[in-house]
Amino acid sequence: MSPRSDGDRRPYRGHLSVGLDVGGTKILGVLLDAEARVLGSVRLPTVTGAAGVIDTAARAVEQLVHAAGVRVSALAAVGVGIPGVVDPRTGRIEHAVNVGIHESVALGPHLAERLGGVLVHVDNDLNAAALGAAHLLDSGTGAGTGTNPRPADLAFLSLGTGLAAGLVLDGAVRRGANGTAGEIGHIPLVADGLPCACGQRGCLERYASGSALDAAWPSRTGRPAPAELFEAAAAGDPDAVRIRDEFASAVASAVRLLVLTCDVARVVIGGGVSAVGTPLLEAVRAALVDQTTGSDFLRSMDLAHRIELAPVGVPVAAIGAALLGAAAPARR
Ligand SMILES: [Zn+2]
Questions:
Q1: What is the CA(208)–ligand 1 centre distance, in A?
Q2: Which of 120, 271, 273, 274 is at a distance of 20 to 30 A from 311, taking alpha carbons?
Q3: Distance 17 CA to ligand 1 centre (A)
Q4: pLDDT in tens, 154-201
Q5: Transmembrane stretches, by residue range (predicted)?
Q6: Per residue in 273-308, pLDDT tens?
Q7: At 29, which CATH number?
Q8: Is residue 135 one of the residues assigned to a domain?
Q9: What angle do CA 203, 320, 90 make, to 5 degrees?
Q10: How far apart are CA 81 and CA 69, in angstroms?
């Protein structure tokens, strides 16, 4: 979502919005103004389970508005990004196992009630991250504004416990008929490959996720396995080099899938594994160059230059959640 034009600028009060990125260990929150600038942020440890998540989310909102000297009623909306199966029309979530919610919970309505009736919009966390990344990157390039009206299509590829993507196409989040657009982690990559919890074999996320790295290169010192693996590979350990390159090749396959299905201009790599930083980006770029050798067709797509890392230290998903909330219809 691009900032509103001057002609559409409305009074400041009532156009503040809060975005929350609800994760298994922490809730990150931001307060945005009507121009989508970050006015404040908060980070609280997640209390898992439905009641705990609702309470932590409400406290995050209250702390943000209190710090800004306004009331919750001054908010146009609260947007929530949460991992799991989400129905954005009802605010109901299911199977948000990372935050300890195994049942079906009307998260949006419960949170709205706790916050005095403010509009609450709940969405999948990767949809929020994709929109947040698109907003931040478009702001930097002027895309989606008067001089460059077409926002760049983007995929946010999360390399976390699993692997999945969020999509922003023509400036809007693409959810699909049942909300599963971008669930590319369960596209089979290897025929008769490793069994997956989804019931298939050889799924992409068995080869290109944080859990895949944890299994292939268990942490020796208690630090994150991806960091240890990439350091060992850089130091020349042949097993580490092999595992790193196989992992990078699988991530490159995910990038190729996203570009070939949606022709996204950008694939932003986020999730826990992205903390490896430049060595990860370089490894995936090398794998993309390797995979396109011998194919003029693939080489013409310039895959290696479409990928980038999610901005470090920026609450991308919380910002995207606030934008989703601000854009949500007032009555459903
Ligand atoms: Zn699977």
A1: 12
A2: 120
A3: 36
A4: 999 999 989 999 999 999 999 998 888 999 999 999 999 999 999 999
A5: 309-330
A6: 999 999 999 999 999 999 999 999 999 999 999 999
A7: 3.30.420.40
A8: no
A9: 80
A10: 25
Which residue stretches of the chain are H helix? 50-67, 107-114, 125-141, 210-216, 225-234, 238-262, 278-292, 296-299, 316-327
CA distance linking residue 58 with residue 48, whole number of Å: 14
Backbone angles phi, psi at 298, to 5 degrees: -70, -40
The answer to whether 316 and 41 have CB atoms below 8 angstroms apart is no
Distance 266 CA to ligand 1 centre (A): 25
- 44 and 101 co-located in one domain: yes
Distance 165 CA to ligand 1 centre (A): 14
Q: How far is the CA of 305 from the centre of ligand 1 (A)?
A: 28
Contact assessment for residue 307 and residue 285, using Cβ atoms and an 8 Å cutoff = yes
Question: Cα(273) to centroid of ligand 1, in Å?
Answer: 19
- Domain coverage including residue 266: 149-309
132 CA from centroid of ligand 1 (Å): 27
CA of 196 to the centre of ligand 1 (A): 5
- From the CA of 311, how far away is ligand 1's center (Å)? 28
End-to-end CA separation in angstroms for the chain:
21
> Which tens digits make up the pLDDT trace of 92-122?
999 888 899 999 999 999 999 999 999 999 9
Tokens of 203: 């799924």
Q: What is the DSSP string of 51-120?
A: HHHHHHHHHHHHHHHHHTT--GGGEEEEEEEESSEEETTTTEEE-BGGGTB-S-B-HHHHHHHHTTS--E
Domain match, 65 and 190 both: no
Per-residue tokens: 34:
């009507």
Indicate if the alpha-carbon torsion angle 260, 261, 262, 266 is positive or negative: negative
3-state class of 141 per DSSP? helix
Ligand 1 centroid to residue 291 C-alpha, Å? 23
Looking up tokens 């390399």 gives: 159
